[in-house]
# Entry
Amino acid sequence: MRTYRYFLLLFWVGQPYPTFSTPLSKRTSGFPAKKRALELSGNSKNELNRSKRSWMWNQFFLLEEYTGSDYQYVGKLHSDQDRGDGSLKYILSGDGAGDLFIINENTGDIQATKRLDREEKPVYILRAQAINRRTGRPVEPESEFIIKIHDINDNEPIFTKDVYTATVPEMSDVGTFVVQVTATDADDPTYGNSAKVVYSILQGQPYFSVESETGTYQFKTPESSPPGTPIGRIKASDADMGENAEIEYSITEGEGLDMFDVVTDQETQEGVITVKKLLDFEKKKVYTLKVEASNPHVEPRFLYLGPFKDAATVRIMVEDVDEPPVFSKLAYILQIREDAQINTTIGSVTAQDPDAARNPVKYSVDRHTDMDRIFNIDSGNGSIFTSKLLDRETLLWHNITVIATEINNPKQSSRVPLYIKVLDVNDNAPEFAEFYETFVCEKAKADQLIQTLRAVDKDDPYSGHQFSFSLAPEAASGSNFTIQDNKDNTAGILTRKNGYNRHEMSTYFLPVVISDNDYPVQSSTGTVTVRVCACDHHGNMQSCHAEALVHPTGLSTGALIAILLCIVTLLVTVVLFAALRRQRKKEPLIISKEDIRDNIVSYNDEGGGEEDTQAFDIGTLRNPEAIEDSKLRRDIVPEALFLPRRTPAARDNTDVRDFINQRLKENDTDPTAPPYDSLATYAYEGTGSVADSLSSLESVTTDGDQDYDYLSDWGPRFKKLADMYGGVDSDKDS
# Structure
């Protein structure tokens, strides 16, 4: 027998205790005092000290649904420069200024004029300022403050359905899931218990019960959870054992079929609900799913006892995560005329906190994208304005970045590109496209075209350039040339008479006025130089007065002069080189007597070739005491035979300089010397040295190692040798 039972479900919400915000202590904000010179009428200047500004608030929060007869008091704005003489005026701007919120311009008291609903708008951002009533100038910088609306329990919970219908098999075990009921409350869930919902059953006991806080399964997950994140577990009971107790879970119905997934934990036979797609608290805060649990293994003989499955409702609440502000556009494109004055507003950007708290944001310009600080932004409303003059011809596009930052959490910020196009204004005059210098033949006819003129303009008018050409007024009368405007941004210079005489007038200077057709009209004057030249019968120029610009059959005078100069310079260079060759200076081998070191001096003397084997006797150089053998030159036939000269032996104490000079003199006076350049080496190693020869060539003939410790006693000049030879033994020992 199946019976139907009905029960009533009662829900109630906790009533929070009345809360009132107490007056806060005096809050002071402002800037360090510093002097500022204000420009007054005439040439007089006064010094104005800018002192700190004091804000005094009775409360920062207003209760919603205020039912009092008087306006609800918000706070008070007071400046230290207010002397109570009525010279200052307080003004208010921002959300609801002048409508929801008003300010007494004399006392600075701020009041709310209407009942406020937190569910409609929870936060108001306003700005206040004190200005001089007489001059209208601000005496304090504009300051921003926030008014938050306190929630009261003025909304009742509402079920998501008017009627819930459910069935339950008879003989069901205690604890069997029947249905999921859900109610929501529009009050503030972050303040008090106004939005907390509690469930209870009015009728239907003792057969049914309800979970007082959730109504059944309920999970929470932050909106930042990546796909695959587990949210919670659900459990279905099965009295069987083994594979007959295995359970499969699946989502069959609900709002989050594509947002969530469920898998079975094979060890615990629980259903694990995971995130399938990225969540967004601002788009959807609650998802309701129907999860079904079933047996994958059912014996056919027991099918008549089925169905072997059950379902449960799962409620998933998405939790808000503090996210950075979001701009209303991915990018902004603004335009402004290049003649805009400083502080001209171009446009604005808008960004909001996507979180439920709707935290206020402030704006700034990334100065890395605006190094010259050409633009600025109002930190409160995002208005973009100029801080310097613009020039389209210098830079057409300005690409800057605007930053929006949460006031309560500066770490949360976002950026948006802002492209500003500078619109053209006719502020440049047209000018010649190039420097024009032309000629006219002496036998030219009247109305003959001698030059075509073109102009350019830095401006870029919307309808294109339209130039006009004319002779300057001072040259229009009595001119020997005329200007013909072709109406296509070009003009021609025409002759006005037959024949010109270069001896009477060799050069004409024509001032030409070029004007544009934009507003305001801009014009400039350019000069065209016209030379009178002699031409052939084809009109080709041959010569022009004292200057020859281009000659068709030869070179110009300037070119000939340049060629002659090059030739003269080349001849002078050759003569100087020959003189230097004849007057070669022979530098001394050793400049200082103290500098007793091996020196190599190259005389660049060329030998007699491969056959020149008797030009010198190298044995003499190796041993000054050797006697030269009488050998005749085999490479030449001498006119007279001279006996070879015997070179006297050098004394033991002969100075190197004297030895070299002696050998040089002997070679210069030797009649048997070859009559052409030869290489003569005057190397000489003195005798009587304590160290004997320092050459490494003879060191190989020694029978044993030598002691070079005495080199360290010879002073700094031999320090390098002492280091090289003195450390040999130590190296071997190591």
User: Anything to note?
Assistant: Residues 431-543 form a domain with the Immunoglobulin-like fold (CATH 2.60.40.60). The first helix runs from residue 473 to 476.
